[in-house]
């Protein structure tokens, strides 16, 4: 137990001994040094004149944006519908692709640990590590701008996320139920349908609603790179500096995100 | 007696129980989902001529992954990557530093109601706004460059870390905290010895995870002019330089994989 002595020879308990404290302080020192160096780089590439001017600019933008242009909403219904479709259909498409990947990646259901599982894991990692905006950028340049590109971008991005959570759920299932089903002489497929699927169904439903919620958020900005949805309107309003329209669009996005989170919390509450 | 099957005893054939038990709700959900699907799919327009034209480009892109071009835009990639890393590190550090007090304030069992409401408000605002949208506003206010990206990522980090930390503090073991309090500790000592040691292991893990997320996000902030490798990537796509784009994407994937591996090791050590 770390103990230090005061001048009078009295022993006092302390949280850490001297070496631990020194290591800790060294860690802080390194962190501060790295931070200061990084900050220097940021500072060098910043035009500080603009930054000092920022409060005025912010106030200026704020005063231009207020009040939001409410009648612009009539032009937003179709983009809102598109955004919802991108998120929902994207999630469905992602789940269709994620389920087989998850079964191939889970160590207790994969047909081959040596060959198939690494491939499935690579699919999971590579789709997860690239942001949906980058996928959208790529797909817009391949299949052209529009809702379809955004939908596929969301779908591809979600595969890794859903498959990862799903295969972890599959690996945690109760093996006794599987054994009970196989003891009746069930085939591989019957074990899957009657033994594994009922056990992962709640996890599956929870994951899909969770991802749908995230996808609502992500689909609102896909339009910035031309992939459809309300982001297109945001981009065009920003380009002409129509701040009252921007304010309304941001408000709509905020409401959509909050509603999405509320729905997903309700559904998850009902399932679990 | 031996040829009496389970079906005969039950009177009806055994069927798998349904996931949604209430039949009215079940059919309502199925029909509603079908109607929505038909409406949604029919509202999507696909320009098939454009797609078939683009498939060749897509194929070129896949081929480009086999021969990524790291060199011809080497300096651009290097600068963008360093800027991304710098933004990631600074915003994670600042984000953690700010989210600790906010996380303490957003825990109902520690903070008084007014502070709780303010901190929860900050967390909700930060979580509801997408990083890209914040970045657009920050670029408009602070001008182009990594400073806007740094502020955006710090703001996003606060919402993520403070929320999870507050939930963790609300679930903590009250007994330990009370033991410290009963020694006559001050409020700061109480937090330092009674509360933080309980949430610190998870906080370290989450911080590493957030570092990982911040790097991924910093790769796209460049699309709206907030610094980082996204700008280089965007240019590469605009010029159809798929080999350069493939190189950048490969760098991002490898870096994220390394970070994930590293954070896994650190998390296992602290927990």
Write the layout of secondary structure elements.
The complex is a heterodimer of chains A (272) and B (271).
Chain A: E1 3-5, E2 11-13, H1 18-44, H2 48-52, H3 54-65, H4 77-105, H5 116-129, H6 132-143, H7 147-171, H8 175-183, H9 188-219, H10 230-239, H11 243-271
Helix pairs in contact in A: 3-11, 4-5, 4-7, 4-9, 4-10, 5-7, 6-7, 7-9, 8-9, 9-11, 10-11
Chain B: H1 6-10, H2 23-42, H3 48-66, H4 74-105, H5 113-128, H6 131-142, H7 146-170, H8 174-182, H9 187-221, H10 230-238, H11 242-270
Helix pairs in contact in B: 3-11, 4-7, 4-9, 5-7, 6-7, 7-9, 8-9, 9-11, 10-11
Brief summary:
The complex is a heterodimer of chains A (272) and B (271). With 272 residues, chain A is mainly alpha-helical.
Key traits:
heterodimer; A: 272 residues; mainly alpha; MetI-like fold; 2 domains; two-stranded antiparallel ribbon; B: 271 residues; 11 helices; 78% helix; extended
Describe the structure in your own words.
The complex is a heterodimer of chains A (272) and B (271). With 272 residues, chain A is mostly helical. Chain A folds into two domains: 1-46; 71-271, MetI-like (MetI-like fold, Orthogonal Bundle). Chain A has helices at 18-44, 48-52, 54-65, 77-105, 116-129, 132-143, 147-171, 175-183, 188-219, 230-239, 243-271, and strands at 3-5, 11-13. In chain A, helix 8 runs antiparallel to helix 9. The radius of gyration of chain A is 26 Å and the shape is flat. Chain B has one domain (73-270): MetI-like fold. Helices cover 78% and strands 0% of the residues of chain B. Chain B contains eleven helices and no strands. Chain B has helices spanning 6-10, 23-42, 48-66, 74-105, 113-128, 131-142, 146-170, 174-182, 187-221, 230-238, 242-270. Chains A and B meet through helix 1, helix 3, helix 4, helix 5 and helix 6 of A and helix 2, helix 3, helix 4, helix 6 and helix 7 of B.
């Amino acid at each position: 137990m770390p103990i230090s002595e005061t001048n009078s020879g009295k022993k006092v308990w302390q949280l850490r001994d001297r070496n631990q404290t020194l290591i800790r302080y060294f860690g802080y020192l390194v962190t501060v040094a790295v931070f200061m160096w990084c900050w220097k780089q940021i500072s060098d590439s910043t035009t500080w004149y603009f930054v000092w001017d920022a409060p005025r600019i912010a106030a200026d933008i704020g005063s231009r944006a207020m009040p939001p242009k409410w009648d612009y909403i009539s032009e937003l219904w179709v983009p809102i519908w598109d955004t919802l479709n991108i998120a929902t259909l994207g999630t469905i498409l992602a789940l269709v692709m994620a389920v087989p990947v998850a079964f191939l990646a889970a160590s207790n259901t994969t047909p081959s640990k040596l060959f198939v599982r690494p491939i499935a894991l690579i699919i999971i990692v590579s789709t997860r590590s690239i942001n949906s905006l980058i996928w959208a950028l790529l797909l817009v340049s391949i299949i052209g701008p529009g809702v379809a590109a955004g939908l596929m971008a969301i779908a591809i991005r979600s595969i890794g996320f859903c498959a990862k959570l799903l295969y972890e759920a599959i690996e945690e299932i109760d093996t006794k139920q599987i054994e009970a089903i196989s003891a009746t002489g069930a085939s591989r497929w019957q074990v899957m349908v009657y033994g594994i699927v009922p056990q992962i169904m709640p996890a599956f439903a929870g994951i899909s609603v969770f991802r749908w919620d995230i996808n609502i958020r992500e689909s609102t900005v896909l339009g910035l790179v031309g992939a459809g949805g309300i982001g297109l309107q945001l981009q065009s309003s920003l380009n002409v500096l129509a701040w009252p329209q921007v304010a309304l669009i941001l408000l709509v996005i905020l409401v959509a995100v909050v509603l999405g989170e509320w729905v997903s919390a309700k559904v998850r509450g009902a399932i679990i | 007696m031996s040829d009496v099957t389970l079906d005969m005893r039950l009177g009806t054939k055994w069927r798998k129980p349904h996931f949604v038990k209430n039949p009215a709700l079940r059919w309502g959900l199925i029909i509603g989902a079908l109607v929505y699907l038909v409406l949604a799919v029919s509202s999507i327009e696909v320009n098939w001529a454009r797609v078939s034209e683009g498939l060749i480009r897509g194929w070129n892109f896949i081929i480009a992954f086999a021969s990524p071009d790291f060199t011809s835009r080497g300096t651009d990639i290097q600068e963008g990557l360093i800027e991304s890393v710098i933004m990631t590190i600074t915003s994670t550090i600042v984000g953690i530093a700010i989210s600790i007090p906010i996380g303490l304030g957003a825990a109902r069992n520690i903070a008084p109601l007014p502070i709780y409401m303010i901190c929860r408000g900050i967390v909700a605002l930060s979580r509801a706004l997408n990083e890209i949208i914040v970045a657009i506003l920050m670029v408009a206010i602070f001008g182009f460059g990594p400073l806007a990206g740094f502020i955006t990522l710090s703001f996003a980090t606060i919402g993520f870390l403070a929320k999870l930390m507050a939930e963790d503090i609300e679930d903590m073991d009250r007994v330990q905290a009370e033991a410290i309090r009963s020694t006559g500790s001050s409020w700061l000592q109480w937090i330092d010895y009674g509360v933080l040691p309980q949430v610190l292991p998870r906080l370290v893990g989450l911080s590493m995870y957030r570092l990982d997320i911040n790097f991924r996000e910093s790769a796209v902030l460049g699309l709206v002019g907030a610094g980082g490798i996204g700008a280089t990537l965007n240019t590469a796509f605009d010029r159809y330089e798929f080999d350069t784009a493939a190189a950048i994407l490969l760098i991002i994937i490898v870096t994220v994989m390394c970070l994930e591996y590293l954070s896994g090791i650190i998390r296992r050590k602290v927990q």
